[in-house]
């Protein structure tokens, strides 16, 4: 069973969870709290218990994407390093260039789209107050252009991440992914001549360092690289580290993934997770609660990924056609779903509410007092929104993605020209 297929399915499942959650996030809060969150009378519902609450584990999907990214980026390069070392460095260089272009071009394109949409006043009601300070629709185009320029510049600042969320709240993950990918390339090159167990030892030290300092994104991506190294070593020699062997290890990792993956509180450790506050490194206290939660989620998804690596049955589920289809659309779903929600969610929901209640949408808490109208307008508008997201994602993959891939290939080819070829081409142009 090809390894890439189950990873593609896992990526698709994670993208579906994120798209599903972002539609309700900020409006419906109960699923995003744990079963024992206080006050208890507002919680302790079935949807807050595992495994159902995994449907709401949006925050855990980001580190999962980074583990997948680190693993996928490294796997092909490690295989080439071990079998065709003469092509290894050139492939690393090519991979780095193409990855940069494939991530940055869509980020810039969607940034321009969101700015134009905001300028036209199509999703101003869906934005947090601090998203575009001082900007108003249909006014001062130069101010909008300046804001867009600063957003793109901040998004390309990989040495000191700016966390400029811009007008679409999910693109902050791309600079982190790019930075982590370049670290993966660097580590792979440095470790290329080393013995396998020395490589794993250094990676273990890097993982301990990033986790101790709470750098959860780097921990996740480097974990993907470490798991790829373990997989490559196992395929070559049959060797497997001791901590991955046996049923007890499998059960422990599954328990850790299930427990930490259920940590979904938005404010602080809920009662059923307060033991983690005692266990966290003191360095984490320098950051806010979100960072601590993401570190625990990173540990959870690393355990989950290691389980999937060793489970042909679970891999078989992820190779089923629905997961594979979602996997093919996963990056496009990630790109388009939030802008689409910002444009159509509120107007469609408010329109359906007015049809049923003959009054304006009063806000999520007051609206929830009329349960039938509340849920029917959310479900109906959600179905329309999800269909729109999938149509837009399919259109992106059909009509936009091939051009981005072509640009990345052509740029890589142009940068890789020899001096003689470049001079000859320059003379022809002259």
From TrEMBL:
Domain of life of the organism in this record? Eukaryota
Task: List the transmembrane segments.
Answer: 100-124, 326-344, 373-396
Is Signal among the key words of this record?
no
Q: Which GO terms describe its molecular function?
A: acyltransferase activity, transferring groups other than amino-acyl groups
Please provide the record's keywords in A-Z order.
Answer: Membrane, Transmembrane, Transmembrane helix
Q: Which residues form the Acyltransferase domain?
A: 5-365
Q: What is this protein called?
A: Acyltransferase 3 domain-containing protein
Gene source species: Penicillium salamii
């Amino acid at each position: 069973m090809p390894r890439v297929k189950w990873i593609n399915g896992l990526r698709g499942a994670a993208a579906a969870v994120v798209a599903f959650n972002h539609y309700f996030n900020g409006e419906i809060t109960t699923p995003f709290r744990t079963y024992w969150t206080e006050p208890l009378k507002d919680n302790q519902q079935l949807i807050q218990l595992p495994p159902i609450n995994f449907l709401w584990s949006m925050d855990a999907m980001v580190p999962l994407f980074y583990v997948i990214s680190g693993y996928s980026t490294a796997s092909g390069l490690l295989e080439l390093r071990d079998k065709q070392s003469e092509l290894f460095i050139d492939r690393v260089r090519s991979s780095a260039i193409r990855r940069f272009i494939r991530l940055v071009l869509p980020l810039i394109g969607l940034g321009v789209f969101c700015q134009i949409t905001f300028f036209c006043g199509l999703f101003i009601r869906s934005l947090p107050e601090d998203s575009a300070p001082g900007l108003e629709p249909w006014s001062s185009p130069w101010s909008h252009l300046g804001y867009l320029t600063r957003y793109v510049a901040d998004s390309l600042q990989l040495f000191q991440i700016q966390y400029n969320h811009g007008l679409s709240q999910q693109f902050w993950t791309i600079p982190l992914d790019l930075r982590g990918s370049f670290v993966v390339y660097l580590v792979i090159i440095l470790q290329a001549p080393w013995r396998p167990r020395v490589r794993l030892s250094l990676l273990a030290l890097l993982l301990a360092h990033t986790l101790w300092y709470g750098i959860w994104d780097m921990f996740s991506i480097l974990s993907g690289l470490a798991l790829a190294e373990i997989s490559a070593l196992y395929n070559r020699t049959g060797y497997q580290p001791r901590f991955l062997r046996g049923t007890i290890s499998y059960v422990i990792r599954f328990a850790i993934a299930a427990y930490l993956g259920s940590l979904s509180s938005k404010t602080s450790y809920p009662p059923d997770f307060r033991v983690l506050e005692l266990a966290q490194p003191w360095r984490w206290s320098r950051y806010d609660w979100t960072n601590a939660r993401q570190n625990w989620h990173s540990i959870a998804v690393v355990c989950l990924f290691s389980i999937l690596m060793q489970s042909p049955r679970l891999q078989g589920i992820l190779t089923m056609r629905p997961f594979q289809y979602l996997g093919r659309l996963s990056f496009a779903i990630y790109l388009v779903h939030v802008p689409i929600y910002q444009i159509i969610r509120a107007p469609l929901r408010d329109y359906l509410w007015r049809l049923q209640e003959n009054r304006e949408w009063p806000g999520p808490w007051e609206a929830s007092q009329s349960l039938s109208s509340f849920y029917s307008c959310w479900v109906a508008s959600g179905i329309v929104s999800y269909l729109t997201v999938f149509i837009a994602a399919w259109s992106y993959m059909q009509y936009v993605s091939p051009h981005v891939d072509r640009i990345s290939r052509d740029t890589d080819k142009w940068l890789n020209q020899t001096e003689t070829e470049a001079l000859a081409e320059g003379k022809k142009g002259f």
